[in-house]
Amino acid sequence: MLFPRLTSVRGQLVLWYLVVLAVVLLALGIFQTITLGGYLRTAMADSMRSASGAELAVLGPCFISSPADLKTDAQTLAGLLGSHDTAVKIVSRDGHVLADHGLGPPGATHALRLSDATIQQVIDTARPVVALGSANLPADVCSNSPQAVAARERFHRILHSQNHSGFQVGNRLLVAIPLGPPNKIVGFAILGNSLTSANNTLSQARLVFGLGAAIALLLSALIAVPLINRALRPLRRVANIAEEIAAGDLEKRANLPHVPDETGRLGKAFDLMVDRLQAALNEATASEERMRHFLADASHELRTPLTVLRGTSQVLLRHRPADPEQLRVGLRDIHEEAVRLSRLVDNLLTLTRLDEGQVLDPQPVQVRSFLDDFVDRYGGAWPERRVEIRSAELDGTTAYVDPEALRRVLTNLVENAARYSAPDGQIILQGSSSSTGLTLAVSDEGPGLAPQDAERIFERFYRANKSRSRRSGGTGLGLAIVAALVAQSGGELHLDTGPERGTTVAFTLPTHDSSAPDRPDSAPGAARERGGAERS
61-104+113-194: which CATH number, 1.10.10, 3.30.450, 3.40.109, 3.40.30? Predict the structure, then answer.
């Protein structure tokens, strides 16, 4: 389509371009008309002055030396200065008409019809020039002395140097010529000429300019349309891609050339925006999927102890066993399931608070004394395991961490190590310090993990050993809590494991205030990325 619709951006650009160009051409035409009209009137006035000056120069500067001479020779001067296309009125200093020479061919001449007011206005245009030229003239200006000749030449130069376009009345151009000696002007010759020729020239110029302007507008439109189409081609591509993306094709991109103009920047920003939107949508979809799985797993995990509780309580209520041992076993099962249910709910609430951005309280912690106190206080929870601390190089090392978060991390890691270690197995707490932070590790002598299990060990509700029951395998959330707490503490988790060679879980912690995380919004994302679950 050669010419775009006016409702499109291309059409509006072309329209506004042509409107601005038309306004510029119109202003240029008006300026040309005014300038050319003034030039033609000035040229005609100068021509009349030059012709009359030449005639008066033949008669001599003092041919008319008094008002009486002017009155006697008025008609002679009118005939001398007039012609078939130039009318002449000889008037006195006060504007009284003394003689006329008509305008037109012989036998059909007609005199200039001018009112007294018009005559006065015409001669008034010459009075300032006469006064300027008459200044400092010698008394014998009509003599042939060098001073008089120079004075007369200066007077005529001043008269002819005044480049004004005369006085226009209707279709006539009037010029006043002073008569008499330079120091004693006794009257004026009013020359009148028709402006028909000048007006015809001006009309012809307007016509030529108008045709040229119309051709220029047409050529500009023919040139502007493909240029604007080419310039807006990237914008059309972005619009088309945006429509396809809105229709559901999120893989589309503008892929405009990386040029430094506005369209290149627009294409780059558009692709970046779509990439971020797609990433956000993918993250939202993945988060929704994780939440769906989480709710399904949580419901499944909660249903198991609730089923046991309900079943055991129903048996006890229905059969009312008389055997105390049977009653004790039933109550014990109810208690164990209640404890397990309580632990599962507590873990779920902990993960929920971490996902919502629970703010930790980082404090300086002496690592070696903290580990010693941890083993002394909680070591009895794993009576069949030996918990050993190997952290001689941590003497004097200070970590900047929330003590309760660190205690929860160590408890969950040791609990998992104890659950999967052989009886009388050894659990080792060790660490190292460097300029980048503090590293603590919990190692066990268990069976280790296969690679496919190691990749998912921190996912919620994931259990590496499918053969274990939920009652013996924990809630499946311990390592998820570890991952979330370590991430919110500003650290990282590292897993070293393999079949039949045990498992080592290491995590890093900041050692000074500047590296401690103070961004609660970072924990949910990090926790969701790592997922997490306890091995079972």
Answer: 3.30.450
Q: Can you name the residues that pair with 110 across neighbouring β-strands?
A: 103
Cβ pair 535, 463 in contact under 8 A? yes
d(CA 534, CA 524): 18
Q: Is residue 295 pLDDT above 50, yes or no?
A: yes
Contact status, residue 1 vs residue 203, Cβ threshold 8 Å: no
Backbone torsions φ then ψ of 390, nearest 5 degrees: -120, 85
Residues of the chain with CATH 3.30.565.10: 360-530
Tokens 């939920």 belong to which residue?
Answer: 470
* C-alpha closest to that of 85 among 201, 193, 203: 193
Tokens representing 372 are 């010693």
What pLDDT digit, counting tens, does each position of 216-264 carry?
999 998 888 888 888 777 877 888 888 888 887 878 887 777 777 777 7
Residues of the chain with pLDDT > 70, as a percent, come to: 82
Instruction: Give ranges for CATH 1.10.287.130 in the chain.
Output: 253-355
- Tokens (6 digits) for 221: 């439109």
**Bridge partner residues of 192 (DSSP):** 87, 174
State the span(s) of the chain assigned CATH 3.30.450: 61-104+113-194
The closest of 397, 371, 408 to 488, measured between CA atoms, is 408
| pTM for this model (two decimals) | 0.50
The pLDDT of residue 236 is 78
Compute how many other C-beta atoms are within 10 angstroms of the C-beta atom of residue 154. 15
Residue for token pair 């006195």: 92
Grade residue 304 by pLDDT with cuts at 50, 70 and 90: low
Q: Does domain 360-530 have CATH number 3.20.20.60?
A: no
- Distance CA(278)–CA(294), nearest Å, equals 23
Short-list 163, 154, 82, CA closest to 125: 163
Question: In angstroms, what is the C-alpha Rg of the chain?
Answer: 55
Residues 6+ apart with CB under 8 A from 213: 22, 25, 26, 29
CATH of 253-355, one of 3.40.50.20, 1.20.1260.10, 3.60.20.20, 1.10.287.130: 1.10.287.130
Which residues, at least 6 apart from 419, have a Cβ–Cβ distance to it below 8 Å? 473, 474, 535
Alpha carbon distances (Å) from 533 to 243, 361, 407: 43, 24, 18
